[in-house]
């Protein structure tokens, strides 16, 4: 009741405007929603070639712990702007829309999932931004798919944004930055875990999370992100 009232009040003070084109009426307008560049055929995230089930294609397969990475769309407007507005302009309402895209992509694969885990932010960055966008997305996806969400990973140091770095530097930038929180290994043992992030550059961050989760006994680790920047 109170939540509803708060939401209605909020809508009066800040009436919804499209997170891409600013048209009034909704947080993502019809036109922009229809113009999202979505990935409709499963691709290998490393080379972009067709690869059934969003798996890493045979020629790119490496021992990195990540079995597949699901990309929902391409890094193009309106999707690009929606992601940036969620992250940097703190338009959290946009997460609901992006969750829809993730749910749609996961359903394409039609495979059981046991646990959903967000890529953690470093504590300093969390206080700065006020929220972890990956966690918002993970929470939404878990709710929609009726799967448990947990936050068992810790980012032990703040890393530079991946986007400004060249490929080898991205890998070393995130190497060893994640670990499992104490007493959480029973949570991931034997599970099919899906790691959620908003965007990837090369996939190094998600791969690094996958490596830790596999070391801790996860049966399989996938990743899902909205787009690859
Ligand atoms: Zn729009
Ligand atoms: Zn490939």
TrEMBL record:
Coiled coil: none
Protein name, UniProt field: Phosphoribosyltransferase domain-containing protein
Pfam families: DZR_2 (PF18912), Pribosyltran (PF00156)
Family under the similarity heading: Belongs to the ComF/GntX family.
Residue intervals of the Double zinc ribbon domain: 10-61
Alphabetized InterPro entries for the sequence: ComF/GntX_DNA_util-trans, DZR_2, PRTase-like, PRTase_dom
SUPFAM superfamilies on file: PRTase-like (SSF53271)
Domain Phosphoribosyltransferase intervals: 135-225
Gene source species: candidate division Kazan bacterium RIFCSPLOWO2_01_FULL_48_13
